[in-house]
Write a structure and sequence with these properties.
2 copies of one chain form a homodimer.
Chain A (H helix, E strand, L loop, with lengths): L1 H16 L8 H4 L2 H12 L1 H12 L11 H18 L5 E3 L6 E6 L8 E7 L19 E3 L2 E3 L7 H17 L6 E7 L9 H7 L8 E5 L10 E6 L1 E10 L5 E2 H4 L6 H10 L23 H8 L5 H8 L12 H4 L7 E4 L12 E2 L2 E10 L5 H15 L5 E10 L2 E2 L5 H14 L4 E5 L4 H10 L3 E4 L14 E3 H19 L5
């Protein structure tokens, strides 16, 4: 695996030899405000990095109740930071879960557009902890790479958005457009409280466009505009058999083992050959892409070889009739994430457990509806459950799939900002992950939601040794300085 | 579940109203030595119980390395106890794992038979700990029931064997026959070092019969002579996919999830309708029982209704073409005990894990060979594994199945001892559990191995709140006093 990473980083090193840091040349000279911000960003990279270190030290794992206080502390830190750089009214908003951080700077006035920037300061759990080379919440830099939980997803990317604001405010004392900042502490648990917050504050949050930075680009030479993402329906099913754990010697052969039943049921949901999900009705609402979109996606330079190297998988396997880029973007999936119950420690225990459970998530694509998928999943499981067990279901989270119009002006402005910040044109794709908030922002704010990313495909997000390629951090800050500048003179609906 | 137990205990209460404590009447009066031992046993029940408490307090979990020191302490305690009651040369024998305790009293001389008594002082793990009403290693008594890990399996039953010896030694200063005592600390991990020990010490251990007390009887009115037990082949299979954990959003649909693969493979090993194991060749060596044995087993008073009440299972399910008593005795099984890997904590994590594993054990019957079954299991798994994963196998333990001749004199003497100790005739059965040592003792010592039990089917061995029905403890001590007495005048081969 080290070999693979070294290969990839060799590619990145080559990429660095090219001078990416072409800041647009002539056209930028005509805008002294942006030029000053860019100059500030280049002079203060160490300051930005130190500040990111501070934020990374909070173990703000939103799914673990014991870390609630750390999530809160990270929110407080962000409020203070925003106040310091000029968002004097920055504040926390309580929710039923972790707080939101909100701030606004509206002094550009009504003749300028209003942009809402969004990021999240919560992170994924860190297990298996023993695979981390360094403690996940003690960030460290090795060469051009920053290590730590949240380095890429999303603290590093979020701080690039904010550092670009800082660069304007610290140099000219103002921003080129009106900006609202909304930072969430529950993205990794599928934003359960964002919908209600957006519904309640939709007038306060009104804007012409939303910019989210929480995605990966293909490599440092190939920024990506993501115009769609998959939704999610995350279920836990519990199969209960005997009322207590039994000895498999005494009762094995007479009492159906909940694990035996569960694996039979989970196997029945998948076709191991076609890699299709066998839940009846699962594909009914899946929107097939048209030829134009198929061609657009085909231009995305993803190769099976590269994916094999990135993942270390012995072979790839995807849905029959589709190709790699489609497998991870426009096709739905079913993945098992864990099978709790019984004995999983060292050694052996001969137990027929009272219950076994499975954590199963399904990635969804337009126009699948997570509520409907939950019902289909439960019905499918119930229809194949033998009379030897009882089933219980729990929905652990849902997110709607979303597609945005990549031809809208706010999105095209990102393309130009990437061109200036990274020196190359971006490619277009739809991503496989789920950001619940995107569909909700579209629904409640009525504004196009633009997803820009600075991560790399091997940032190991959600895994041990998460990392962030620092040149992307610095180029990202400059890209967003360009974006704020370009958007200020763009006509938005 | 409490309801079920109360029902069962109501049955036991009824049973207690009958006067079981008929100690054979006239025939015993002719043997003052045995009568004195019985009288001692009745007077010293509290002493025996206190001593059992001491032993139960050692958390001698043999499968957990962190408890090795506790296993050792339990062995030391037993050595001291045996010395105290008259086995002056009692000592520990080191093995590659946990020690054996050995003692002998041969003063009856060559004209009397030699009996080897066997028990084990190691116990199963205690998880899930939160389901124990009291700490597993702080034994407690509630009415007639003793609670604690090892109370039934096997510390309580083992101490009944030893207390019967104590009763003779403390009264007449001698035993009615020659006795060798062999106590093991690795039974719960399938006795990996017993075979080598028996091979090396087979002359020292030479005997005319072996008595093991590590089994359950049907209820307090129905003692059982167990003349066969199942073997075991306990495997762990690890399915590895990507070289590291992946985000199911980014890679879901393109990288085969090791859990998805594993459940498909495990499901392919079982027929959910016939409940047959689908590993090719699995049944090839299974010895079908003859009509006489089928009738003998059919006389065993096991009912589906009783098993449903005992286990709390919504329904039973066993191999097509066989009946309940056969499912758990003369037919082999496949049980999954745990599926480690991925994320099993609270909440959700959207991970495609680098690997997933399964702990699978197969109960075996004569003449299945655990070594051959391991090969068949591995071959079956390999033959259905897709190219997206790699497999690794680990054998966690093996035990040969065994059958003994229930018509032999040493076994018939147990029937008479039960009749005197419990007041009723025993029934005959073959048990579903595995005691590796039985087959090995037959092989190395050439003596019949008699399995007598004092446990009850709902003792919750291997599970939370393990318990031991104390009247069985006291009746058991007296039963073994009778047994030693009867055997002393029985002609053994």
């Amino acid at each position: 695996m080290l070999k693979l990473d070294q290969d990839l980083f060799a590619l990145y090193e080559e990429a660095r030899d090219v001078d990416f840091l072409l800041y647009g040349g002539d056209e930028m000279a005509t805008d002294p405000t942006a030029s000053a911000a860019l100059e500030y960003a280049r002079q203060n990279r160490d300051v930005f990095l130190d500040r990111l270190f501070e934020l990374l030290r909070f173990p703000s794992i939103s799914t673990q109740v014991e870390n609630a206080v750390d999530v809160e502390k990270a929110a407080d830190w962000l409020v203070n930071y925003l106040k310091e750089i000029g968002f004097s009214e920055a504040q926390k908003y309580s929710t039923a879960g972790h707080p939101l951080v909100y701030a606004e700077w509206l002094e550009a006035g009504p003749s300028f557009p209003t942009l809402l920037v969004y990021g999240h300061y919560d992170v994924q759990p860190v297990d298996p902890l023993d695979l981390w080379h360094k403690p996940p919440f003690e960030p460290s830099v090795d060469g051009d790479v920053l290590y730590g939980r949240g380095a890429s997803d999303d603290k590093g990317q979020m701080m690039a958005l904010l550092a670009a604001l800082e660069a304007y405010l610290r140099t000219s004392g103002c921003l080129p457009l009106n900006v609202k900042v909304l930072l969430e502490g529950e993205e990794e648990i599928l934003s359960p409280n964002m919908g209600p917050f957006l519904a309640e504050h939709n007038r306060q949050l009104a804007c012409n466009a939303v910019l989210i930075c929480d995605d990966s680009i293909l490599d440092p030479q190939t920024p990506v505009i993501t115009y769609g993402l998959r939704g999610n329906c995350y279920m836990e099913v519990r199969v209960s058999g005997p009322s207590r754990d039994l000895h498999s010697g005494s009762f094995g052969g007479a009492v159906d083992n909940p694990f035996n039943v569960l694996v039979r049921m989970l196997a029945a949901l998948q076709d191991g050959k076609t890699h299709k999900v066998l839940i009846p009705g699962f594909y009914d609402r899946v929107r097939e892409i048209d030829e134009a979109e198929r061609a657009l996606l085909a231009a995305y330079p993803a190769s099976e070889e590269q994916t094999l190297r990135l993942t270390g998988a012995p072979a790839l396997a995807g849905e029959q009739g589709y190709r790699l880029i489609e497998w991870t973007s426009v096709r739905p999936t079913l993945d098992i994430h864990g099978i709790p119950g019984g004995f999983t420690g060292e050694g052996k225990k001969t137990v027929i457990p009272a219950w076994a459970a499975a954590k199963v998530s399904m990635r969804l694509v337009p126009d699948q509806d997570p509520d409907e998928i939950q019902v289909l999943f439960e019905n499918a499981m119930r229809s194949i459950a033998p009379p030897t067990v009882k089933l219980e279901f729990k929905c652990l989270g849902k997110a709607r799939p979303a597609v945005i119009d990549y031809r809208c002006p706010a999105a095209q402005a990102v393309a130009e900002a990437y061109r200036r910040g990274f020196g190359v044109q971006p490619v277009y794709t739809r991503t496989g992950g789920s950001i619940a908030v995107v569909a909700e922002m579209m629904q409640y704010l009525g504004a196009p939601v633009i997803m820009a990313g600075l991560g790399l495909p091997d940032d190991q997000i959600h895994a041990p040794n998460e990392r962030f390629y620092l040149p992307n951090f610095y180029r990202g800050i400059e890209t967003f300085i360009h974006y704020y500048n370009i958007l200020s003179t763009t006509t938005l609906s």
